[in-house]
Amino acid sequence: MERKRIPVVERILSANDRLAANNRERLQRHGITTINIMSSPGAGKTTLLLATIRALGETYKIGVIEGDVASQVDADKIAQAGVPVVQINTGGGCHLDATMVQQALEALPLDEIQLLFIENVGNLICPAGFDLGQDYNVALLSVPEGHDKPYKYPSMFEFVDLVLVTKTDLMPYMDFELAEFRRLVQGLNPRAPVIPLSARTGEGMEAWLEWLKTAVKGK
Question: Domain 8-213 carries which CATH code?
Fold first, then answer.
């Protein structure tokens, strides 16, 4: 009997890409700049978002889609900052996909949003393979994780538009070589700038905020 191989992964990604294109068209129709933020758990995505909302909340109308395996702890923090937020719980899934984002968009006041952040599920592998309809991809890596992660997890870094090194206030206490990290990132993705920052102290935040302003203007 002839055996047939069904390219399941390719079919899933193809279907996801079609939905992502629909999301992108919808967001563009509303004039929304969308940023997909990815990192491992605990790298500081929510802390960065809260600092960004404090800094730009009077300049742009901001919205957030929060992705987590379970709970709505981060979404509650964002809501307390006064911006519209939708929580997506994947129930074990290691990344968001275009269908989840499509459903989240239904619950957001898109006419009242200029800048939308998607905080993806904490993972350095899975989120890199799924288009959500975003305009830009941003990867975070915290100082405690070590500078060798681009070597170990290249797929996360080779397609992003920006890399943020977070928790730089811990640099004096960690064996993190920033120059080596930059070299590894540039070897994978020469077009992606690397911005070191600390959302806790504010160091480097201005460069991140300027990048965001340029991204919004570029729409």
Answer: 3.40.50.300
